[in-house]
């Protein structure tokens, strides 16, 4: 790859990464092309060298934001080798995750937007939901019950994080995270090790 091609690829990747952070933090409707390119330190006119349209960029950024979550979830599960589900729950329902939506799980911030978007966004969202369900179900016994438990767990993780970010009372926000984490850990089966 020539020097200019390498620079072009690096610029495109920078815009995509920065846009993925923006859509996690602010949603898909707010960031405009001029704002995104300015933050990436590129000219507005250069945008079309990298993406066909704003919609093309947002679709790709949504897919990138969603895909980043699997590695984080797997790392969280590995941190507690004796109880990987507990590690995952603690990381997901922790203050650090709640307070950093730009780098947090995109399922929380992009759910409503994916539901209103076209097929590409829905497919990317569904792919990530399925990946998380497989991961969570794999932390317990392999059964239909484990799959249902994974659905309940993922729904509780996403919902509690969403609500904890949306309320104005810090005490209620903390309580949502703690209470849901405690309930999930009490009722969810635990694997003896993480195997992914």
TrEMBL record:
Q: Where is the HTH tetR-type domain?
A: 9-69
Tell me which SUPFAM superfamilies the record gives.
Homeodomain-like (SSF46689), Tetracyclin repressor-like, C-terminal domain (SSF48498)
Q: Which UniProt keywords apply?
A: DNA-binding, Transcription, Transcription regulation
Task: Quote the DNA-binding region ranges, renumbered to this chain.
Answer: 32-51
Asked if the keyword Ion transport belongs to this entry, the reply reads no
**UniProt superkingdom:** Bacteria
Q: Check the record and name the PANTHER family matching this protein.
A: TRANSCRIPTIONAL REGULATORY PROTEIN (PTHR47506:SF7)
Question: Can you name this protein?
Answer: TetR/AcrR family transcriptional regulator
Q: Which organism is it from?
A: Streptomyces gibsoniae
């Amino acid at each position: 790859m020539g020097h200019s091609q390498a620079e072009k690829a690096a610029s495109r990747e920078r815009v995509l990464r920065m846009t993925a952070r923006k859509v996690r933090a602010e949603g898909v409707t707010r960031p405009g092309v001029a704002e995104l390119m300015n933050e990436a330190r590129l000219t507005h006119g250069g945008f079309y060298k990298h993406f066909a349209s704003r919609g093309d960029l947002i679709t790709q950024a949504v897919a990138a934001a969603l895909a980043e979550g699997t590695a984080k979830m797997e790392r969280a599960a590995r941190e507690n080798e004796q109880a990987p589900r507990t590690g995952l729950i603690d990381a997901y329902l922790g203050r650090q995750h709640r307070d950093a939506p730009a780098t947090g799980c995109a399922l929380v911030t992009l759910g409503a937007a994916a539901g209103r978007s076209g097929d590409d966004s829905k497919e990317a969202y569904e792919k990530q939901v399925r990946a998380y369900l497989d991961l969570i179900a794999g932390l317990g016994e392999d059964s239909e019950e484990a799959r249902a438990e994974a659905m309940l767990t993922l729904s509780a993780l996403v919902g509690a994080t969403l609500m904890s970010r949306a309320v104005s009372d810090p005490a209620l926000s903390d309580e949502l995270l703690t209470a849901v984490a405690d309930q999930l850990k009490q009722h969810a089966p635990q694997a003896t090790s993480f195997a992914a």
